[in-house]
What we know:
It is a single chain. The protein is α/β, with parallel strands linked by helices. It has two domains: 2-172, Rossmann fold; 175-356, Dehydroquinate synthase-like - alpha domain (Dehydroquinate synthase-like, alpha domain, Up-down Bundle), CATH 1.20.1090.10. Helix content is 46%, strand content 17%. It has helices at 25-28, 46-59, 78-90, 105-117, 131-137, 175-192, 194-208, 212-232, 247-257, 264-281, 287-299, 311-318, 348-356; strands at residues 2-6, 13-18, 36-42, 63-69, 98-103, 124-128, 142-147, 150-157, 163-166, 331-334, 340-343. The strands form four sheets. Strands 4-3-5-6 form a four-stranded parallel β-sheet, with helices on both faces. α4 (105-117) links the parallel β5 (98-103) and β6. α5 (131-137) packs parallel to α8 and α6 crosses α8. The longest helix is centred in the middle third of the chain and has 21 residues, at 212-232. The mean pLDDT is 96.
Amino acid sequence: MQTLTVDLADRSYPIHVGQNVLTRTDLLLPHLKRKQVAVVTNTTVEPLYLEKFSAPLRDAGVTVLPIVLPDGEQYKNAETLNKIYDALLTHRCERNTTLIALGGGVIGDMTGYAAATFLRGVPFIQVPTTLLSQVDSSVGGKTGINHPLGKNMIGAFYQPQVVLADTETLNTLPDRELSAGLAEIIKYGLIRDLAFFEWLESNMPRLVAREPVALAYAIYRSCENKAEVVAADERESGERALLNLGHTFGHAIENGMGYGVWLHGEGVAAGTMLAAEMSCRLGWMSAADVERTERLFKAANLPTVAPDLGVDTYLDLMGLDKKVSDGRIRLILLQGIGKAIMTGDYPQDVLRATLARV
């Protein structure tokens, strides 16, 4: 097991990465204010890990309330969120009851938002079971739900007490979900870590083959990158926005295609290629670097061509992005591999031309 810390002064918390940390009650009990937890999971994760996770807690004298939600991005909404509140209220949970997210990014985001808002704030813990959630969504305190008009438009910054990333859970992850997580790993190399990008170019076959050592290194390096960014800019007023490389385009894809049709990581991959192509059109990124980026996404079995939604539809959906300022769509673009910037200062015709090539 490896441990790193997200440094946020008195709200700092550890991230534990390793095999079989799912059952390590010694990593959880110190963070419980009361021996009562509500474990939020979904119908896919429940038969795989709910009992395995809950049994050691019960053996330690912890009362466990399971809350099982339907699985899928299309359920990341207010109606499903209310199911969490309903269960918490029905079982008279209190402010010192800890909510535990056991699942992927959807479960983590919804559980975190429920924790931030139930009784105006209760503790919560992240136990991510997908690659994407282990390297991205479980770290940094972004929580929320989707709205029919936009992805993650309703939410709060609310940090967990601890994150347990068990690499063993990746053995039951479908290939498509594994690839979706690899998109977020590639992102860290593109925005700020050239050496990691080069390591990924050499080791992507090992990650696709789920070699434990390679996966553990990629997860730790990704969390290390994100922890540094979050510590410097918790509420996304500056550097943290760079973590959204490909996301403005990608969220438009997810929304435009219908939530759940494209996985988040697939949208990010195709969206990052749009950002790279636009950066090349602006003269900021070489064609060779765009090709390197495309090769790496393809090696991870990710889409590199976005769906044709139409330029106006893209612009309309992108206009709902949280980074829009004074009506201007601010984008994360690349000045080469390993260097990202956020800017709203670009010719509109270049953006339209990039989208027209979809």
